[in-house]
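Hi support team,

I've been running sequence recovery on a batch of backbones for a student project. Most finish fine, but this one hangs at about 90% for roughly twenty minutes before it completes. I'm not sure whether the input is malformed or the queue is just slow. I've pasted the structure tokens below so you can try to reproduce it. Let me know if you need the job ID as well.

Thanks,
M.K.
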């Protein structure tokens, strides 16, 4: 079982043991928050180019979620008889991910997006945080199947960042 140590900027590092299904759950959390962000922020955007980009990114997040859910269903029979302690995973998701990568719900409302450029900047910063988190997970992980899941998501997040940065330059 691979051990991952995630430095959180706090004095202590959190040690989390990840299995393939854990990596999928972490990835699902990131993707779901991304979807909520792009859908919510997209409703506040005036510029059709930016609105279309946010809609496209929301669609991609939906596709990623569907793919991850299919992988989880595929793994379900293999892990059905194992008793996996989920406390560490839930702690990691709650402490390190929820609302820490993409602004969500009331956080998004409190951001009071005043311009399309501000929405783009929030998207860019969120994608950067996602990339940073995934790179940290990859650096500490030893299991190849877990690394493969994080690597795939990292590639997608880098694509999103590039698309947003290119669009920002056009405005």
């Amino acid at each position: 079982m691979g051990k991952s140590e995630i430095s959180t900027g706090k004095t202590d590092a959190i040690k989390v043991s990840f299995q393939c299904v854990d990596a999928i759950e972490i990835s699902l959390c990131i993707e779901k928050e991304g979807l909520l962000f792009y859908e919510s922020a997209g409703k506040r955007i005036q510029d059709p180019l930016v609105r279309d980009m946010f809609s496209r990114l929301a669609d991609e997040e939906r596709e990623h979620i569907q793919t991850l859910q299919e992988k989880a269903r595929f793994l379900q029979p293999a892990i059905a008889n194992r008793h996996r302690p989920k406390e560490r995973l839930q702690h990691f998701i709650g402490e390190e991910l929820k609302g820490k990568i993409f602004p969500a719900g009331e956080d998004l409302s409190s951001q009071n997006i005043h311009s399309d450029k501000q929405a783009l900047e929030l998207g860019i910063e969120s994608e950067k945080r996602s990339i940073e988190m995934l790179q940290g997970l990859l650096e500490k992980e030893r299991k190849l199947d877990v690394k493969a899941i994080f690597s795939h998501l990292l590639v997608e997040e880098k694509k999103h960042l590039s698309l947003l940065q290119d669009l920002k330059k056009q405005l």
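--
Follow-up from support: It reproduced on our side and the slowdown came from queue contention, not your input. The chain has one domain: 3-170. No action needed from you.
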